[in-house]
Predict the structure.
Amino acid sequence: MSQKMISRRGALSLLGLTAALGFAVPTTALTTSNAQAQAQPTAPTPQAQPSGPTSTAPAMSGMERRQQRRAARQSAREMRREARRTARSMRREARQTAREMRREARQTSRRLRREARRGNGQLYMNAGGATKQK
C-alpha cells in the first residue's frame, strides 16, 4: 500500500462528513405529539440546577451581566462616597463642638479673673494659691 498525504482541507472535510453522518437523527424520533411531550416529566437533575440566588432568575446575556456588574460597582462606589461624606461631617461637627467648649471655658475663666481683679469679693486663683484681691 502506498501512503498518501492528506491535506488539512481534506482532513477537515472528512471530519465534517463523518460528524454529519454520525449525528444524523431520523426525523421520526424528533417529532412527538403534544400529549407525549406534556406527559414526559422534564424535571432537571440536581447537578443541572444552578446554585445560589440566581437559580430563579432567567439566563442573562453577557451584556446584561456586564451592565449589572457595572451598576453594582457604581452603587457600591456611591455608598462609599456617602459614608466618607458622613464621616467627614461628623468629624467636622466634633471639632466645632470641642472648639466651642474650649472657647466657652476660656471666656468663663477670663470673666472670673476679671471679676476677681475688679474686687467683687471673689477669690482670685494665681500660681501661688488663692489670694484675696483688694
About this structure: The mean pLDDT is 77. DSSP finds four helices and two strands in the chain.
